Amino acid sequence: MDEKGIRGALTRYRVMAWIVGILLVVLVCVGVPLKYLAGNDTVVTWTGIPHGWLYMILLITAFDLGRRVKWPLWRLLVIAAAGTVPFLSFVAERYATKDVRAKLASGEIGRPVPATD
């Protein structure tokens, strides 16, 4: 895989990890207390549904990145689980970014595929 494709996949994954993570934190730290303590489920409705849909996109971006950098299945499962635990998606994103950047810097991945004639 080429470096440009890997960097693009990493950016897509990072954006989705942050969006999903922020929505989950708002849902759990604001929405759930409002719903059960104040009887107002507006925040739960407006963050829970988008979080669920965007979580599916996070899974797709994580799979795409994992496929490009040849992550083992366990790493993809950890990333998938991280999107369901408040604050953990930020930690998983940080470790994934660090891993991919280290692999790119070492030349382990990201060499352009030579054209065949």
Task: Please supply descriptive tags for the structure shown above.
elongated; transmembrane helix; transmembrane; single chain; cell membrane; mainly alpha; 117 residues; DUF3817_TM
Q: How would you characterize this protein structure?
A:
- This protein has 117 residues and is mainly alpha-helical.
- It has helices at residues 3-38, 42-69, 73-82, 88-106.
- The protein is elongated and about 65 Å long.
- The longest helix is centred in the N-terminal third of the chain and has 36 residues, at 3-38.
- The chain has one domain (3-106).
Topology, number of strands: 0
Total of DSSP H or I helical runs spanning 4+ residues: 4
Low-confidence stretches: none
- Gross morphology is elongated
- Beta percentage is under 5%
Question: Regarding quaternary structure, how should these chains be classified?
Answer: single chain
What's the story with the biggest beta sheet? none
- What value does the Rg take, in angstroms? 17 Å
Order of helices and strands: HHHH
How many structurally independent domains? 1
Q: Could you tell me how far the N terminus lies from the C terminus, measured between alpha carbons in angstroms?
A: 18 Å
Q: Kindly state the percentage of residues in helix.
A: over 70%
Please identify the structural class as seen in this structure.
Answer: mainly alpha
Query: What integer is the average pLDDT?
Result: 91
